[in-house]
């Protein structure tokens, strides 16, 4: 059965800390891995990863994929209170997306 | 202005009534999806459509129905057979080509059944 597992489930940090969120997967017919940020509304797209070892970067956020070990990480440096959200990882195959349950990040001042 | 629109943003209905949630996209994406999200929970797939006039059941299709008569539109009907319909409903569309495979979400509809 296809599955996507995210860890940790929850994370509490102070502003300025660096965090690493993990996503491991077992999905047949892998096409891409996606990261989303969800606050109290619809998820917003962060990154799409298809190739191993190529880092995607956007401001303080970065992500990388390891297709041999079947995992991805999302790094957030110098966290801010506005980074507080649930971060979702999803893997696409030919039919649909398989979502993890998310990591809830809380950043306190 | 390109994107995915869902309407209404909030919807209140009495128990036993069917309701239809609208989802429209002008991104020219072939595939569209409906998800349900309950408070503090992950996304669960209701139905998806990879092409016009074709759709497949997701993991929790019971009590729901869809149609895909046009590429731009993928409405979801929540029927009275759905036991616990109060939830946040998200529509999404997906672009797939040689270099990309990404899904984008609409803003969502919060349905409350009284």
Beta-strand percent range of chain B: over 45%
Rg of chain B computed from alpha carbons, rounded to a whole number of angstroms: 14 Å
Tell me the quaternary state.
Answer: heterodimer
Number of helices of chain B: 0
Rg estimate of chain A, integer Å: 13 Å
Estimate percent helicity of chain A. Answer: under 10%
Chain pair forming the biggest interface: A-B, 21 and 21 residues
How many helices of chain A? The count is 0
Terminal Cα span of chain A = 41 Å
* Residue runs with pLDDT of under 50 for 5 or more positions of chain A: none
Which stretches of chain B are low in confidence, meaning pLDDT under 50 for 5 or more residues running?
none
Description:
- The complex is a heterodimer of chains A (109) and B (114).
- Chain A is an all-beta fold.
- Chain A has strands at 3-7, 10-14, 19-26, 32-38, 44-49, 56-58, 61-66, 71-76, 85-92, 97-99, 103-108.
- In chain A, the strands form 2 sheets. In chain A, strands 2, 4, 5, 9, 10 and 11 form a 6-stranded mixed beta sheet that branches.
- The model of chain A has no long low-confidence stretch (mean pLDDT 96).
- Helices cover 0% and strands 54% of the residues of chain B.
- Chain B is built from no helices and 11 strands.
- Chain B is globular.
- At the A-B interface, β4, β5 and β9 of A face β5, β9 and β10 of B.
């Amino acid at each position: 059965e296809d599955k996507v597992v995210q860890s940790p489930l929850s994370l509490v940090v102070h502003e300025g800390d660096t965090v690493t969120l993990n996503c491991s997967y077992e999905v047949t017919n892998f096409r891409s891995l996606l990261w989303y940020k969800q606050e109290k509304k619809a998820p917003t797209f962060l990154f799409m990863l298809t190739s191993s070892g190529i880092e995607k970067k956007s401001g303080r956020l970065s992500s990388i994929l390891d297709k041999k070990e079947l995992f991805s990480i999302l790094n957030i440096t110098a966290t801010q209170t506005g980074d507080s959200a649930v971060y979702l990882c999803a893997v696409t195959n030919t039919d649909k997306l398989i979502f993890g349950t998310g990591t809830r990040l809380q950043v306190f001042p | 202005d390109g994107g995915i629109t869902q309407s209404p943003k909030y919807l209140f209905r009495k128990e036993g009534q069917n309701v239809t949630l609208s989802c429209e996209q002008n991104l020219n994406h072939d595939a569209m999806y409906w998800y349900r999200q309950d408070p503090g929970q992950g996304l669960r797939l209701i139905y998806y459509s990879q092409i016009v006039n074709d759709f497949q059941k997701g993991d929790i299709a019971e009590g729901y129905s869809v149609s895909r008569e046009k590429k731009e539109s993928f409405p979801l009907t929540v029927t009275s057979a759905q036991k616990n319909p109060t939830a946040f409903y998200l529509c999404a569309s997906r672009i797939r080509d040689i270099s990309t495979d990404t899904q984008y979400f609409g803003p969502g509809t919060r349905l409350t059944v009284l």
